[in-house]
Specification:
The complex is a heterodimer. Chain A starts with a strand and ends in a 7-residue tail after the last helix. In chain A, 56% of the residues lie in helices and 6% in strands. In chain A, helix 1 crosses helix 5 and helix 4 runs antiparallel to helix 5 (158-181). Chain A has a single domain (4-218), classed as Transmembrane di-heme cytochromes, Chain C (Fumarate Reductase Cytochrome B subunit, Up-down Bundle), CATH 1.20.950. Chain A is mainly α. Among the domains of chain B are: 95-112 and 205-471, no CATH class; 494-531. The radius of gyration of chain B is 31 Å and the shape is globular. The chains are: A mainly alpha, B alpha+beta.
């Protein structure tokens, strides 16, 4: 039987950042696809309004998050590793059905498994920057105006718009998969609870997984969700 | 207790950004100070510094109108020369058109899509000429006494030029009371301008659709500027003039991006509270959103088919009217289509235009003959989207020489080849072309024509402006025909949309399959445990 200990995994700002980001991404996607004429809800004008203002909220949040990551050294959580990468993939594809143990142990200094590290790093370095930059171009590009408006002059909105749309689909898919994968923690809701309260029951750091011969039977399982 | 405080803090932290966003979303407080200032400035009645009734020279009994002009010019010594050089008198301007160079164009020599042209028809057309006696090619454009001052400056509203009088008014006992008229002379009123500009094409609102007699009495719903319950402005409040050169361009006759009258002249380039709307004005003309429909009171002519003219019923010419009293067929002019509350069509326009000259070759391979061409495209920095009345029709052309035809339409008496009197196409074409003079092969047919007239009047109140969704919509938006640029809400890349949707669907399918297997496996395990 493994020893479990309540650990304070997610700090206050981290949770504030996470949930606001979630809210803003939802709002941006919902209004964004209305602007894309996928459906009608707020009305075009209001949707544009909300989208633009939520975008600014998102940018401000990102600035704070970057500061937080740098000053706390939390950015190191996202350094990609190939160690256990295959094992982690195999766990999601096979092990999880046999109630096999998580191949990566979650600790405060290493909260993310190798797959998470890769995906979150991709989001932070690729998808979100692409969305922010294409979004800012959307807001600030001007039609060619000679020299009268000293802003970015772009002949055609098309490329910006298409990149922004493609990014939105990628983000939405991420959110969907993310929402599912958070149920694969220690219990179905343990990850969710952790992100709300900050506290999560983690394996005692003295224990190594090899010793947990019986963990399969005793772990409250993910099933029955 | 500590936990409780923490929970509250956390809750507030989540809610605070929401509150900030909501507050930021509130509409900015409307600032109408600029509009108010304009409202104060423009409806002021113009007060003349001169009382013409005190002018002795105007008290005479004039026997002909030229003498009245001479009397005007004794005080207004330089105005005659000004007028001799103005478009209102010359019906021609010096224009520069790419591909043609400097050309002299105007109503004097251009083809239009209504009564086609003035040549050989001067006696009738010149009812709207600011002059006396332009009856044919012999008219003297250098004689200042041929100028008609009164038609624009009469403030009594009683002056009338005679029909078929080549610009002369009726004189003598049947004519207007000139003593009263001359005593009233002053700045042109909207009625003066309207006498000609409302009736272009042969009747009220026929030609422009946004210029008609109802503007004199309608409210601001029809026209915010001229509305009697609004600013109640007159034509010359905007169409200001210096030395008789008026501001404003009509691209049925003009070609260059000069002397234009812009909304921005009064309203500035940043008239909206919302910056996103101001940004639109870089590529979208004010008129595009603020004139959602034209011909709001009376119908305007949208189609004129000359090919069906000259038909007779029981050997006689006839007319057909629609329910509103608009003529939809007349033997002398052909078939008409009228429309009311018309949604404009939209085009890129940079302020320059070309015209199909009567000497130009007709391209019979193209579907329509463009009577005039508005230049502009998305990539052109000077182009904006503007609302346009497109007037379509059919006009005669010479099938051998491939030129458009100027027919003789009018004369004082029958038997001289005027189509409107003799109903004979052959003869009227021969007479018209011989008058110009241009060769005519003897063979004619009719060709589809289009004329493009930017709509600038009948500006609606802001509350009735075109909404975002009318353009930013996938199908059948107002700008559906302007496809040379990407517009959010209208355009999309089918591949990206399809790939994106597939990715999403695959994600959901993956989640569903994975979750199902997990669930089944767990149930199996549980069952095994119980056993």
């Amino acid at each position: 039987m493994s020893k479990h200990k309540k650990v304070y995994v997610y700090q206050g700002f981290e949770r504030f950042w996470h949930w606001n980001q979630a809210l803003l991404i939802f709002l941006l996607a919902f209004t964004g696809f209305e602007i894309h004429s996928s459906y009608e809800f707020f009305g075009f004008e209001t949707a544009v309004d909300i989208h633009n203002k939520a975008a600014w909220g998102f940018i401000i949040l990102i600035v704070f998050a970057i500061f937080w990551h740098i000053t706390t050294g939390e950015w190191k959580q996202y350094i990609p590793t190939t160690q256990n990468l295959k094992a982690q993939a195999e766990f999601y594809l096979f092990g999880i059905f046999r109630n096999a143990p998580h191949p990566t142990r979650k600790t405060v200094i290493s909260k993310l498994n190798p797959l998470q590290r890769l995906v979150y790093l991709g989001l932070k370095l690729l998808v979100i920057p692409v969305m922010v930059i294409s979004g800012l171009l959307f807001m600030f590009y001007r039609y060619p105006q000679g020299d009268s408006i000293a802003m970015i002059n772009i002949d055609n909105l098309e490329i910006i718009a298409l990149v922004h749309t493609a990014g939105a689909f990628v983000l939405l898919s991420f959110v969907a998969v993310h929402l599912y994968l958070i149920t694969t923690g220690h219990t179905v809701t343990s990850n969710l609870q952790a992100m709300i309260t900050g506290w999560e029951e983690l394996e005692d750091e003295d224990d190594s997984p090899e010793h947990d011969v019986n963990s399969e039977k005793t772990d409250t399982n993910t099933s029955g969700s | 207790m500590k936990k409780f405080t923490k929970a509250i803090t956390f809750f507030l932290a989540i809610v605070a950004p929401l509150i900030i966003i909501t507050v930021a979303l509130r509409a900015p407080r409307a600032d109408h100070s600029m509009l108010e200032a304009l409202r104060q400035e423009y409806p002021k009645e113009h007060k003349s510094g001169v009382d013409h009734s005190k002018m002795e020279i105007l008290q005479k009994d004039f026997s002909n109108p030229h003498e009245m002009t001479a009397a005007c010019l004794t005080c207004h010594t330089e105005r005659g020369t000004e007028l001799l050089h103005s478009a209102h008198f010359k019906w021609e301007r010096e224009e520069f058109i790419p591909g043609r160079g400097v050309t002299y164009l105007g109503k004097k020599n251009l083809i239009n899509n209504f009564c086609t042209g003035v040549k050989s028809n001067e006696g009738s057309c010149m009812k709207c000429h600011a002059g006396y006696g332009w009856n044919d090619k012999t008219f003297d454009f250098t004689n200042p006494f041929n100028i008609d001052c009164i038609v624009c400056h009469d403030n009594t509203g009683t002056y009338k030029k005679a029909s078929g009088g080549a610009g002369y008014p009726e004189m003598g006992p049947d004519g207007p009371d000139f003593k009263k008229i001359l005593a009233s002379m002053g700045q042109p009123k909207s009625e003066n301008c309207g006498n000609c500009h409302f009736g272009g094409g042969g009747g009220n609102n026929v030609k422009h659709g946004d210029l008609e007699i109802a503007l004199l009495t309608a409210g601001r719903d029809v026209d915010v500027h001229m509305g009697v319950d609004g600013a109640n402005m007159s034509c010359v409040d905007c169409h200001t003039a210096e030395n008789h050169v008026m501001k404003g361009r009509y691209y049925g006759v003009s070609s260059t991006n000069t002397q234009r009258l812009n909304c921005e002249d009064c309203h500035t380039e940043f008239p909206h509270q919302k910056n996103i709307l101001n940004e639109h004005s870089i590529k979208v003309g004010c008129q595009t959103c603020h004139i959602p429909i034209y011909a709001k009171v009376n119908a305007t002519k949208m189609y004129w088919d000359w090919a069906t003219a000259t038909r007779k019923k029981d050997g006689k010419e006839y007319e057909l009217l629609d329910a509103d009293g608009n003529i939809v067929y007349t033997s002398i002019k052909g078939d008409f289509v009228w429309e009311k509350n018309v949604k404009p069509e939209y085009f890129w326009f940079n302020g320059t235009a070309d015209h199909h000259l009567i000497t130009d070759k007709v391209d019979t391979l193209s579907a329509v003959l463009k009577i005039n061409t508005l230049f502009g495209e998305y990539r052109d920095r000077n182009s904006k989207i503007v609302p346009v009345k497109v007037h379509r029709g059919r006009q005669p052309y010479d099938t051998e020489h491939l030129t458009i035809i100027q027919a003789k339409l009018w004369d004082k008496e029958k038997g001289k080849g005027a189509l409107w009197l003799d109903l004979d196409w052959e003869r009227s074409i021969e007479e018209g072309m011989a008058y110009i003079p241009l060769p005519y092969s003897g063979k004619y047919d009719f060709i589809q024509t289009e004329m493009y007239m930017p709509v600038n009047h009948m500006v609606s109140p802001a509350s009735q402006a075109v909404t975002c969704k009318e353009c930013h919509t996938r199908n059948d938006g107002r700008l559906a025909t302007l496809t040379d640029f990407y517009m959010p809400g209208r355009d999309r890349n089918r591949f990206i949309d399809l790939a994106g949707q597939l990715t999403l669907i695959l994600s959901f399918v993956g989640i569903f399959v994975h979750a199902s297997i997990r669930y089944m496996a767990a149930r199996k395990r549980k069952a095994a445990q119980i056993q």
